[in-house]
Amino acid sequence: MDQSVYCSQGPSVLPPLTLHGPLQGYNFVFKDLFDVEGYITGAGNPAWLATHQPAKQTSPLILRLLANGAKCTGRVQTDELAYNLNGQNVHYGTPINPVAPQCLPGGSSSGSAVAVARGDAHFAIGTDTGGSIRVPASYCGLFGWRPTHGVLSLDHAFSLAPCFDTAGVLARDMAVLDKVTQILIPDQDNQAFMDEKTTFGMAVDKGLFDLVDQPVAAEIQSFLKKLENGNRDQCYVNVLDTCGVTTGELAQWFRVIQGRSIVGEHQDWLSFHKHTLERGIVERVDRAFSITDQQYHEALEQAERFKRRFLEVLEGCGGWLLLPTTPGLPPLRNASPESLVAYRQTLLGFTAIAGLCGLPQLHLPLGLLSGKPFGLSLLGLPNSDLALINQAKRLMACFSSK
Q1: Cβ contacts of residue 138 below 8 Å, gap of 6+?
Q2: Is the pLDDT of residue 4 over 60?
Q3: Catalytic residue among 59, 108, 109, 138
Q4: Residue 272 covered by a domain
Q5: pLDDT at 198 (0 to 100)
Q6: Is residue 171 part of a domain?
Q7: Coiled coil: which residue ranges (predicted)?
Q8: Could you say which of 59, 109, 112, 132 is catalytic?
């Protein structure tokens, strides 16, 4: 068993609850954060595994997928405590990115992304707090859906920072992602979005695209040109300027709020077992413990002000925004720890928008550049998830046209 991808403990296969259903014929894997009754959820850390008891109940997301005919083919690894975006794990190894073996796979849903990208499963469920679905989707050339905060249940699952945690889905094929989302959120009322906003009309965040590494920005521009040629309703906005913020400020507010949430959730365990974590995660934990009440409340206030203004902008431009998922191509596996720390600071400025605002975001893979995957994201208003998928299908069809 490839321990960098699949967990050596826990159920390798869960039998389907039904042999028939809309997901019959589809296989999935799940991140080692979701509980299965009778097994210990490992959260990517041997000390966590050793200090916790078997789960008493199974994640309702897993049960819903099984009940609709999907077959589970394994539990997959995660970065430690889901507190990383690289896909690295010092205990179990770094999974090989099947699309770009020289690059990191992205995390923390690393095993989920790699298993899907190499064809072991049609789709995977993972989690996204600060980008842990969107980033590995970008690095491995997959569709990656981070839903509206709270739409998918995280009952009976490990929680890193509840104020930002979401479950999410990775898939190679948009049609598969579409089916899975309809199973997971069948009761979401998207009629208003479907009637009024599922069109080609949307805004492109020029300010954020201007911050993307130039080779990637130039490649993405050719896709945006296709959209522009067939779309009279497209407009360009600069969210950063309009909201009066920088990516550095967004990243900082996110780190402070997330850090306080992590301490509130895991203070006792971290106090005794912090030494078992990788050095970079230990440094983030130490910073989280050092956050003052004043810093936390100031970050909350600034983040709430940004959220109100951003939602006004999003409403004003039709409810859809195209923006970069990451600031460039996936980093190399042999990148220095120092360069990865610096890259993470920039990356969080991009991924924090959806997190701070609780919004759905979907990464769309567009192809390869110098042998490395690249793409962009579509972001929507709260609870527009099903319409977001429909809008994305129209976009991909437009991007594929000659």
Answers
A1: 106, 144, 325, 326, 330, 363, 365, 373, 374, 375
A2: yes
A3: 108
A4: yes
A5: 45
A6: yes
A7: none
A8: 132
**Mean of the pLDDT values across residues 369-379?**
97
Q: Can you give the residue range of the structural domain that contains 177? A: 27-400
Q: What is the CA radius of gyration of the chain?
A: 20
Number of domains in the chain: 1
For the whole prediction, is pTM greater than 0.90? yes
Whether 132 is catalytic: yes
Q: What angle do CA 143, 146, 148 make, to 5 degrees?
A: 140
CATH number, domain with residue 222:
3.90.1300.10
pLDDT in tens, 141-151: 999 999 999 99
Ramachandran angles phi, psi of 121, nearest 5°: -150, 155
- Judged by average pLDDT, the poorest of 26-35, 72-81, 193-202, 373-382 is 193-202
Dihedral, CA of residue 31, residue 33, residue 36 and residue 38, to nearest 10: 130
Q: Is 377 a catalytic residue?
A: no
Residue 373's SS3 state is strand
Tell me whether residue 11 is in a domain. Answer: no
Rounded Cα gap, residues 139 and 341, in angstroms: 17
31 assigned to active site: yes
